[in-house]
Amino acid sequence: MGDLRSLPVPDGLEGERLDAALARLFGFSRTLAAELISAGDVQVDGASAVKSDRVHAGAWLDVVIPPPPTMPVPVAEPVPGMRVLYEDDDIIVVDKPIGVAAHPTLGWTGPTVLGGLLGAGHRVATSGAAERQGIVHRLDANTTGVMVVAKSEVAYSRLKRAFKERTVEKHYHALVQGHPDPLRGTVDAPIDRHPSGDGRFAVVAGGKPSITHYDTIEAFRAASLLDVKLETGRTHQIRVHMSALRHPCVGDLAYGADPTLAARLGVTRQWLHAVSLGFEHPTGGERVTFTSDYPDQLGASLDKVRAES
């Protein structure tokens, strides 16, 4: 049973749909708001309602707020295919394979980088929430490549600061549909959760500032291979920005990619790979850079699109 919250609809939400009004009032996703309404946990002026009802300023809302979900803890078991590229007393750098999340999250039951490191006997920093200990940045589950994890507490705090202050150099390669015009450019467009509440992100006015620099490495008949440098690190940033340019990553069906092209090239995920990561070593102070080769599927699809051209 959750907590009952009662309050009037503010003037600024006059005429909004009930699910959208709840999302704005309580910071819910639209999906959760709709679930609460259909479960009968929301009343407007003492009566049940449906999510598409329009609310009026001053109407009285009674909402049963569900208790916060308990976050899953990392399952400590080795992750097949995850290679350690470098390790010392402060950091461990891994080459993350496909289908592995950085750390446990609600709704993710698959393997994680954190669980894989713990399962292989590596020590990681205990700073941060229990389910994210040592994690200073993330890659999407289906984005492969270089990722650094903090082992010491001093490395955790210094690397977190380096990512926040944008002194880390993150380079990705992305195979995108078509040919971006211009061939080299910058996308400066704010990102937030997609209004649909389906887990995607989108360019949204008032979202978090997000900056992506890209440069064409090679142009093919159907696609272009880009070098992408991230200035900020928003969730799905490259995927969202490329989709906004109408040049989604090949295979990225969630963001508008052509399934026919993906199938022809044998791509079953977004064609996006973190090729290099450069930063100041948190205790040594020297600049270090780590690189990762393309996984087999991405390399093979690149050969195919090159041969077609």
From TrEMBL:
<dbReference type="InterPro" id="IPR020103">
    <property type="entry name" value="PsdUridine_synth_cat_dom_sf"/>
</dbReference>
<dbReference type="Pfam" id="PF01479">
    <property type="entry name" value="S4"/>
</dbReference>
<keyword id="KW-0413">Isomerase</keyword>
<dbReference type="InterPro" id="IPR006225">
    <property type="entry name" value="PsdUridine_synth_RluC/D"/>
</dbReference>
<dbReference type="InterPro" id="IPR006224">
    <property type="entry name" value="PsdUridine_synth_RluA-like_CS"/>
</dbReference>
<dbReference type="InterPro" id="IPR036986">
    <property type="entry name" value="S4_RNA-bd_sf"/>
</dbReference>
<comment type="function">
    <text>Responsible for synthesis of pseudouridine from uracil.</text>
</comment>
<dbReference type="InterPro" id="IPR006145">
    <property type="entry name" value="PsdUridine_synth_RsuA/RluA"/>
</dbReference>
<feature type="domain" description="RNA-binding S4">
    <location>
        <begin position="16"/>
        <end position="103"/>
    </location>
</feature>
<comment type="similarity">
    <text>Belongs to the pseudouridine synthase RluA family.</text>
</comment>
<keyword id="KW-0694">RNA-binding</keyword>
<dbReference type="InterPro" id="IPR050188">
    <property type="entry name" value="RluA_PseudoU_synthase"/>
</dbReference>
<dbReference type="Pfam" id="PF00849">
    <property type="entry name" value="PseudoU_synth_2"/>
</dbReference>
<dbReference type="InterPro" id="IPR002942">
    <property type="entry name" value="S4_RNA-bd"/>
</dbReference>
<protein>
    <recommendedName>
        <fullName>Pseudouridine synthase</fullName>
        <ecNumber>5.4.99.-</ecNumber>
    </recommendedName>
</protein>
